[in-house]
Structure formats: structure tokens, C-alpha cells
Design brief:
CATH architecture: 3-Layer(aba) Sandwich
CATH class: Alpha Beta
Shape: globular
Radius of gyration: 16 Å
Distance between the termini: 36 Å
Order of helices and strands: EHHEEEHEHEE
Strand content: 25-35%
Length: 165
Amino acid sequence: MIQLVKYNNSYEAVIIDYIIEFFSFHLLLNEKGGMPENKQAKENLALWTSEEHELYIISENNLPIGFLHIWYKGGNVAWIEDVFVAEKYRGKGAGGIAISQAEQIIKEKGGYTAVCIDVVPRNLAAIGLYQKLGYDILSLITVRKELGENSRTETADFLGYKFRI
């Protein structure tokens, strides 16, 4: 059974490892490779457990298999900022169940009328999951400019413009 469990310090070691794995995955999506540092993961953990943030363990039968981070940035929209399921548990529905449970947590807080999720354009599996879960409104677009060499070769057309992804 999949459930969200509010983070506490007993999960610190496994969550630090998962945060490192999470950012390593994103570095690979962006063709950078490499491994984030333990210090960086600890800084993220501190932020994700600070005021206006909530960090949850995605648990399957009391085994931590990932995490989900919610940020209440203000206003009436909450953000599911980061969702991670360890690789060997992916594709079995845990991420979708965790997101649905997070939506319920947000609804129960009251005052929130929408939930947003950011996603890297190359993360097609996540985009497909979010679409399946009903995330069908593009409400904010982030554009990026590399300050150094840009090695991205894949492109996508969006609203009549071509972007590297």
C-alpha cells in the first residue's frame, strides 16, 4: 500500500540518498552527468522542511521508496515541487498515488484552488503521468539561457517558437 508519511529525521539518511539520485537523474536529462554532493542534498533537505514547505516520504508497506515536496508559495496555488520514486519502484503507480494523496493534503488545508507541478521537458514519463492525472493547463512557462556552452541538441516547437530542450 502506497502512502505519504510526513518527513521526520529518522528518514534523513535515505532521503539524502534519494535527493542525490533525484538530482543525478535531472543532470542526465540535461546531458550534464555527474553526482550532486551530499552537502547540496542536505541544503535541499533543510529548505524542503522549512516554513511553507512540506516533505513527505512515499512509503510502500512502510518502506521508503521516494519523496514528494510541497511548497505553499502563497496565494491560492500550491506547488508540488519535487516528486521522486526510486528507479526499481517506478512504473507501478506509486508516483500517481502519491500525487493524488498530496492533492488531498492540499485540499484539506483549505484556501487552495489549484496545484501546479513543474516538469523538465525531457522528462516525458513525468509529463505523461501528470497529463493522465488531469494536469492539462499550461499556466507558466520558464525559459532558460545557458551562460556557458549549450550542448542540448533536441528541440521542440512550442507556440510557433523553437526551443532546445
